[in-house]
Amino acid sequence: MAYTVDRPKMTLAEKMYLPAIVTGLAITAKHFKNMILGRTKVVMQYPEEKWDSHMPEHYRGAPTLVKDEHDRERCVACQLCEFICPPRAITITPGELPSESKFAKVEKYPEEFKIDMIRCIYCGLCEEVCPEQAIFLRKDYAITGLTRADMVHDKKKLYELGGEMNGLVHKWNPLK
Ligand code: SF4
Ligand code: SF4
Question: pLDDT-based confidence at 1, cuts 50/70/90?
Fold first, then answer.
């Protein structure tokens, strides 16, 4: 059976939206007065001026891939991030390492790694789940493109944005 949500009864003034309209006008008038008196800066000269120094602590940023200090890929194409991503923004094609690699038949690498930035909701779950610390959110907010295809970041673009990250990479630990 359908469940009906109770709706509160509105007063006559609320039904006419008058208090809300008056409150909104008062806020607009206050901002206008502050602007006239030079107390509010309403325009930022972007891109010369940027938000970087005012970036809120809780802003997570966009997902990128990182390499280690020897220019090696950290990602092992385990696809955990692809699985966990809520809007299904990540597409990975795993590849086998060449037979001469000592990690052949032990680890994989991403032949293709794409993140659709139109789908991405910047939740950070991919970073959280990655066992190799290969995917990181960087505080970059200027993610633009002229077409939908531009907004799908491929492996090359993800490494360009991510750069290098030093420290432990499980993939390159000595084999036991
Ligand atoms: S930040 Fe969230 S939505 Fe974006 S790619 Fe990672 S898991 Fe998917
Ligand atoms: S980025 Fe991390 S979680 Fe995603 S496939 Fe690569 S190793 Fe696995």
Answer: low
3-state secondary structure of 62: strand
The CA distance from 23 to 113, in Å, is: 50
pLDDT of residue 78: 93
More confident residue, 140 or 27: 27
Instruction: List Cα–Cα distances, 28 to 42, 54, 155, 159, in angstroms.
Output: 13, 24, 46, 45
Q: Which residues contact 129 (CB under 8 A, 6 or more apart)?
A: 80, 81, 84
Measure CA 106 to chain center: 30
Ligand 1 close to Cβ of residue 89 (< 6 A): yes
Q: Is the pTM of this model over 0.85?
A: no
- d(CA 12, CA 93) in angstroms, rounded, equals 61
39 Cα: distance to centroid of ligand 2 (angstroms) = 48
From the CA of 76, give the closest atom in ligand 2.
Answer: 7
Which ligand 1 atom sits nearest the alpha carbon of residue 115?
A: 5
Q: For residue 92, what is the DSSP state?
A: E
Torsion angle in degrees (nearest 10) through CA of 173, 133, 128, 126: -120
